[in-house]
Amino acid sequence: MLLPTGNRCVAVVIPCLNESEPIGGVVREILSQGVDDVVVVDNGSTDGTAQEAAAAGARVVSEPRRGYGRACAAGVASLPPGTEIVCFLDGDGSDVPAFLPAVVAPVAAGAADFVMGSRLRGVREPGSMTPQQIVAGWLSGALLRLTYGVRFTDMSPFRALRLDRLRALGMSEQTFGWNLEMQMRVAAAGWRILEIPVDHRRRRGGVSKVSGDFVAGMKAAWTIATTFLRLAISLRAKPPRMAAGEFPK
User: Element (H or E) spanning 53, and its range?
Assistant: First the structure.
């Protein structure tokens, strides 16, 4: 199924660090969905990630300064004039690009301002998510609901929104707190939010930068916790406008 974009230009940004094994297949899967621009941001890889991505048809952007948020921001900064909708997903093969039409369609139709694919509500391949990832999604969702009255079940990287609105959000987190910061800012701004189920697979290669290592996992958890506390204090909460089809509270 191709993207139902209504002739809107859609780009996908993929932050990558040492994902040479899966990235070529990921790029090809995304391009098969009719996406206009696939941007792989090489975040200082020491393998052939950039070469594999380019060979598969991606446009490669280099951001040697490590940090998930830095890589996402570099990809966004590289998007050309005329790009209307931007999506994000991971380059390890765990996200399923076949769900891009479902994630993009509500934004393209003007039915939602921010759409996120929930791995917890979709079909998960056994072992695709660690217990700590599941708990982190549940905990962040509970905090967001308590603070802003909006319900999320996940902090999935699979998401879509209009590029102009993203650039106006004021994103600043440079590391693993990027996804949570985006969810908090759209909730505080009163955007129409829609969460839909997406399937999730085991990574197709490489090593997780968060869940595969205890120390990295603890650092990511600390970053996410401090991001929430900092933003909860600085952002003024507004009642969010829920998009049609949002599951009930």
Answer: helix 49-56
